């Protein structure tokens, strides 16, 4: 018999190395306790929300606040950059910046990227074939990272050779942002990374201002200079930093997390390779079953009741998207990977005012890349068990050695 324990105990287990790598049994125990659970012993959190309906309600309710004020003049570089972005600001600044981005990052711009995604996928598959011709190759480093990073470089107009430079810096910001364990070393590394990336973006903005291209940065500079976007250069830098981070630390895992469940289902892989509707269904079920964004945080701006539980004013709520996606009250047999389930409407991209701005792009990358991967390498197999990364907010594999077959 499983001992369920208290929400505080489960929350503590979630933060251990073992809990980070295998959170789903812990989510099951949270569901057994209820959709929202107070955590009085936690020094950081007042409650965890794990039920689907409760998570959805919290994300849509502006009284559960996200983000903070503009950065103080003497804030460190990482705080300054993040606090200058929509993701880390409260209303009305959040909405103001988000609108400026929407004006430039349109569905048309994403649709125009689709041929680029396909061409880049094919180039990367050629490269992978070369690397994997006589032994295992790491799918995460050699494909999972390079595709979303390449797509973002095309979108933002970042020269492709600079992507290696970005990778380590983006990771330092991600380590800083992950749930718990912010050491002085991590803070120092994130500050260096933020300084360097901010300088990089400042010079890119200056270059695009004097010679515009058809990339997103040029479009955003035009929005700023026309004065109708109500965005500053500092905010553009902060948002670019967050956008680039938010785009590929997540999509890398969408691609990676898809591989193990698909490889266990050869018939599905065949169908996926030839039928775009199956590819789309697979992407959605991967996002539900093993979503890359597992957690977000909100603060109750007053005493607020959700699912019969009162979250006290000022209390921080850990909103567990990954648990909501495995809520048995919403998804029958939630632990089963089933692309044919009639309702796969997961909450991995969030909901409400902070809903992911890149959801259409991330979905397009999965839908276009996975079929081409399996068309090219129908016998792709794991060479050894993939290694789960220790991130909890962002779930995915650190390495995944594969053999390409043939
Ligand atoms: C599988 C891929 C992705 C997942 C799972 C994901 C997930 C999320 C989630 C859960 C949020 C909301 C955070 C919250 O409510 O606190 C979010 C916001 C955001 N995402 Fe994504 N994301 C993905 C890909 C992308 C891509 C490709 C981009 C950019 C092109 C992007 C840009 C953003 C931005 C800018 C925000 C902040 C929106 C705001 O603050 O209003 N994401 N994402």
Automatic annotation (TrEMBL):
SUPFAM superfamilies found in the cross-reference section: Cytochrome P450
Alphabetical keyword list: Heme, Iron, Metal-binding, Monooxygenase, Oxidoreductase
Methyltransferase in keyword set: no
Pfam families for this protein: p450
Keyword Signal: no
Molecular-function annotations in GO: heme binding; iron ion binding; monooxygenase activity; oxidoreductase activity, acting on paired donors, with incorporation or reduction of molecular oxygen
Record family assignment: Belongs to the cytochrome P450 family.
Protein name: Cytochrome P450
Natural source organism: Kribbella voronezhensis
């Amino acid at each position: 018999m499983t001992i369920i324990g208290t929400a505080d105990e489960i929350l503590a287990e979630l933060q251990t190395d073992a809990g980070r790598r295998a959170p789903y049994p812990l989510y099951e125990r949270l569901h057994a306790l209820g959709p929202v659970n107070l955590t009085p012993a936690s020094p950081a959190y007042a409650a965890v929300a794990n039920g689907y309906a409760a998570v959805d309600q919290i994300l849509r309710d502006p009284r559960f606040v996200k983000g903070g004020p503009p950065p103080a003049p003497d804030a460190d570089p990482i705080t300054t950059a993040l606090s200058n972005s929509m993701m880390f600001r409260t209303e009305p600044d959040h909405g103001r910046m988000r609108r400026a981005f929407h004006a430039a990052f349109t569905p048309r711009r994403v649709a125009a990227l689709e041929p680029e995604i396909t061409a880049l996928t094919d180039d990367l598959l050629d490269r992978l074939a070369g690397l994997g011709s006589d032994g295992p190759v790491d799918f995460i480093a050699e494909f999972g990272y390079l595709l979303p990073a390449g797509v973002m470089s095309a979108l933002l107009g970042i020269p492709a050779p600079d992507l290696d430079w970005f990778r380590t810096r983006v990771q330092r910001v991600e380590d800083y942002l992950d749930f718990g364990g912010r050491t002085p070393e991590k803070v120092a590394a994130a500050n260096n990374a933020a300084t360097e990336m901010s300088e990089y973006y400042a010079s890119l903005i200056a270059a695009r201002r004097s010679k515009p291209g058809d990339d997103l940065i040029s479009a955003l500079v035009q929005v700023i200079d026309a004065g109708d976007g109500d965005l500053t250069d500092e905010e553009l830098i902060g948002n670019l930093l967050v956008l680039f981070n938010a785009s590929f630390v997540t999509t890398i895992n969408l691609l990676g997390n898809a591989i193990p469940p698909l490889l266990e289902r050869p018939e599905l892989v065949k169908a996926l390779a030839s039928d775009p509707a199956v590819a789309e269904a697979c992407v959605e079920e991967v996002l539900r079953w093993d979503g890359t964004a597992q957690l977000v945080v909100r603060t109750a701006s007053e005493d607020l009741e959700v699912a019969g539980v009162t979250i006290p004013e000022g209390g921080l709520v850990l909103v567990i998207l990954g648990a909501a996606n495995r809520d048995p009250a919403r998804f029958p047999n939630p632990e089963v990977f089933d692309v044919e389930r009639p309702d796969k409407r997961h909450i991995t991209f969030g909901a409400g005012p902070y809903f992911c701005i890149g959801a259409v792009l991330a979905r397009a990358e999965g839908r276009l890349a996975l079929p081409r991967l399996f068309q090219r390498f129908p016998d792709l197999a794991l060479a050894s068990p993939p290694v789960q990364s220790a991130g909890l907010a962002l779930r995915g594999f650190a390495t995944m050695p594969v053999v390409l077959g043939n």
